[in-house]
Design goal:
The protein is of the alpha/beta class. Helices cover about 55% and strands about 10% of the residues. The longest helix has 26 residues.
């Protein structure tokens, strides 16, 4: 009886959470870049690089074509053992905006810190070496900051990839995370952001740098958000496709699982109650589905609660994904959501438990 009561309570809490995300997403106006938008803001784009010879030339080429050129690109080489550094040096002869730093410390956090401390711009933009951007990416961010001065701008990230079921499921799952973070920010309860596309003032970062949990190998983005939030800073989501960063979906289940474990491993260091509450509700409702399914194999009385909880969550999640499908360019939402609903409870519980019990190593 206690288990059934718990699933009703968690179901209600989950419904409230998703409703907040949907309301926040709809309340956030799409940012339109006007022809007369202008800004003299110097932007410093910081990109940590570790063995990125496959992507670095494409990144630099994309930034060379930006419509907004008042920026410096600081590439921080984190002890790469491939041709990353050679490609960067070659680009410097053709593109004066490119700067190269050989990291002294090790890891992504150290690389970011070294890049930010040497940056000349007041607005810092971080992205990953394997991301792609529209040619209006920086212009959109600069115009948004000029129009809506912010301490932290959460910019959208979406996944690209082939049309395989695995790739499409990743796109849907990742879109739900980004959209949830956007919706939460839209109602003033920011809980998530992604360092693959993030903008913040250098002044703000300097105020927060002592609270970014250097002992954790990742989480620089969420810890920065938490710190800014505690200080009462202004956090906004930039709802614009031209401000998006496009990342590749994982090409194997092993890579996907490793990435998600890395994201989850820093959860014990989180202090924001809204983020902790959200994570707990999602974990508990996933764990509950797994428990109810296992118990129903021994006693059929648990089958109805399992099926009702599964159907309830599937319909709610699909409605949420359907409301953001155009922005994130999602196809076959109902089908992909069904597949995701089947695997998600097992994926969430296994990733969460393994990440908390065994600390992942490395940032790539």
């Amino acid at each position: 009886m206690l288990l059934v009561e718990l699933y009703v309570l968690v179901g209600v809490l989950y419904f409230i959470l998703v409703s907040i995300f949907i309301i926040g997403w709809k309340q956030t106006d799409t940012f339109i870049l006007n022809e007369n938008d202008s800004s003299e803001l110097l932007i410093s784009v910081i990109v940590p690089c570790k063995n990125e010879e496959k992507h670095i030339r494409s990144l630099i080429s994309g930034l060379r074509d930006q419509t907004y050129q008042n920026f410096e690109l600081i590439l921080v080489n984190d002890h790469s053992v491939d041709a990353t550094r050679i490609y960067i040096e070659s680009a410097q002869t053709e593109f004066q905006n490119v700067g190269l730093i050989d990291a002294i410390g090790f890891g992504k956090k150290s690389a970011l810190r070294e890049g930010i401390t040497t940056a000349q711009g007041n607005l810092i933009v971080t992205t990953d070496a394997d991301c792609r951007h529209s040619n209006q990416w920086l212009q959109t961010i600069a115009a948004f900051q000029n129009r809506y001065t912010s301490d932290l701008i959460i910019c959208p990230v979406r996944l690209s990839g082939n049309n395989s079921i695995f790739s499409n499921i990743q796109k849907s799952e990742f879109a739900s995370l980004v959209a949830a973070g956007a919706g939460a920010a839209g109602v003033g309860m920011s809980i998530m952001c992604n360092g693959a596309n993030l903008a913040f003032t250098k002044e703000t970062w300097l105020r927060c740098q002592e609270t970014l949990h250097e002992e954790e190998q990742s989480g620089d983005d969420i810890f920065l958000l938490e710190s800014i939030k505690k200080q009462g800073g202004v956090i906004r989501f930039l709802k614009s496709e031209s401000a998006s960063a496009i990342a590749e979906s994982a090409d194997s289940l092993k890579v996907f699982f490793k990435q998600r474990r890395r994201w989850t491993s820093k959860a014990p260091a989180y202090t924001d109650w809204q983020l902790i509450f959200t994570a707990c509700v999602i974990f508990i409702i996933s764990l509950l589905q797994v428990l109810l399914l296992c118990l129903s194999a021994f006693d059929l009385k648990y089958l109805i609660p399992f099926l009702s909880l599964f159907l309830f969550k599937y319909v709610l999640d699909t409605f949420f994904l359907n409301s953001v499908r155009h922005f994130f360019r999602l196809n076959h939402v109902w089908f992909n959501s069904l597949i995701l609903s089947i695997v998600y409870p097992f994926y969430i519980t296994s990733v969460a438990l393994s990440a908390l019990l065994i600390k992942p190593k490395g940032w790539k």
